[in-house]
């Protein structure tokens, strides 16, 4: 159902609401807009609630639809429902959503972060619409020109994942944007992956300093000189082959290259998964082998399961938003919720703000001196 | 050994040389510069010569070193040696090679194409140096601003591979370059992969027509209007996830994005291969399984074996150059030689030239009308 101008979002919580949320880290959940509907989202919340008693949810969507789902999962004592009749569809254009967002579960979910009721918003809705609406409702952080979307990348690093940003918030990024992405990425690595002294690399077509575009050379200098004060290690230029490596924890790039790298990696992994499945189905012997190897294959499959790295984090806004994959099932939603909890619990947003403010003063000095 | 100014390349073939090459498709081989030295290169030539009696080779490098290798492989009746004492090292800078290329096996190999003795040049040497020297010795085709490097990508398409270009000749490409890449890619798909009516896609961050950078929108129009006359199908924008898909045969992009996609795909495949190996080595049962699945795994491994897609094709020059991977072993070199033979045999170079000439007239009209 598309959004209309009618506003069905309640602006203030009912008197009995705080009980469910009291003393908990509160996450704002857009229950609508995913391919599998609100049932998969609520099932994901239940999975997370069971493992972690410190999470509470404000769930946004049509009350009549959500109430029975939440009752079935026995989540009544952990959830507050915020009635929002309208849904932003998967094919809604960003410009349309910015005009017609009122009354949608997406806008309602963002507003819970905007007005301070919740720390982080999670949505399975369409990326372009969510970013446009997030920029409108939450506004960019002071001094940030381009927000970024950060994703996790299965890797050889000890924490099992690397962070890459921007993977598609904006198709352009200049040197200052790239520096800010580095700083945001460092905060994310600390808060989300517990990496104390993150290693940052700048994506390029070669590792020699003379390679690549002009803005990359300037960004190289800016990030290098910010490393000491901001307590991270700059490893210099990295290449596409380093994305899953243990050389680096945070990979910085513009949203065009980042999006192409992300989708290429996903596409390659999918092709190999399909070929593997065919290889094991090919003969009686190979099917036998698959049975014997089941445990090992499951372990591998779990390691590269895209559902476990579900959650693009929107950064550079006054509030954190996590975009869960549109096709996420309960496991996927639960992974996004876990990440949201970690970021909220660690005071991620305040840390990013502080880091950007300190660094931007230094950079301004440096750019002025050049 | 680095190149010096002394020129040890013989400029004219000896009187007895043509016998070995007579009636054969002649390939010019730079035997030096690869990580495994000339022995691996000559072993690769022997592999190809055994399968295909129509190939002859002009092999460039230090005669004293090459002669025993060629004698050992019994290749004397298929090879002509061109003595060149100097080697372009893996870390040689393009600018250095352009000044000091004389006397190197790389320049000597390119010159055999330049003076018409050979149809295609194959080298394992360093990419940047090879491209710089190729541009200097062969010159760009009339009307081509930026040459491109095309690579093969294992895919779901019937021919088993898709073509992507540019993967790193230049970090920039404007709309006209992208159109030319499309046309070169179509010729390559016909000559190298026997695809009669290739499907071309333009790499972007989304498939909707309003997405991406300005030059991509113009390139979309240009390629679309060239499709009919040049007898290919334009499928529009494609994403990173489409690279290994069966939606498309030729993927067009700038050298920056193309290089990042290529290396990301390779990195992802390597990570999964390593994880698979670990999974199968993990326990007694899984090692048993690996034994049982051997045939199937070998089949899969062959399908995604990077040695089988060895060979970046330099296009847009007066002559075709194939860059074989620096670490190529005999199998890898033989794959590059096979590709070189196919392109030479099909009159690839003349076809590209004709196609670009026809299309450039049309495009000029179109750009003038806008």
UniProtKB/TrEMBL annotation, chains A, B:
The keyword Manganese does not apply. It catalyses: a fatty acyl-[ACP] + phosphate = an acyl phosphate + holo-[ACP]. It is found in: Cytoplasm. It comes from the Bacteria. GO terms for cellular component: cytoplasm. Its main location: cytoplasm. The keyword Lipid metabolism applies. Pathway: Lipid metabolism; phospholipid metabolism. It is an enzyme of class 2 (transferase). GO terms for biological process: fatty acid biosynthetic process; phospholipid biosynthetic process. Keywords: Acyltransferase, Cytoplasm, Lipid biosynthesis, Lipid metabolism, Phospholipid biosynthesis, Phospholipid metabolism, Transferase. GO terms for molecular function: phosphate:acyl-[acyl carrier protein] acyltransferase activity. Pfam families: FA_synthesis. Its EC number is 2.3.1.274. HAMAP family: PlsX. Belongs to the PlsX family. Homodimer. Probably interacts with PlsY. Catalyzes the reversible formation of acyl-phosphate (acyl-PO(4)) from acyl-[acyl-carrier-protein] (acyl-ACP). This enzyme utilizes acyl-ACP as fatty acyl donor, but not acyl-CoA. PANTHER family: FATTY ACID/PHOSPHOLIPID SYNTHESIS PROTEIN PLSX, PHOSPHATE ACYLTRANSFERASE. This is Phosphate acyltransferase. It comes from Harenicola maris. The lineage of its organism: Bacteria, Pseudomonadati, Pseudomonadota, Alphaproteobacteria, Rhodobacterales.
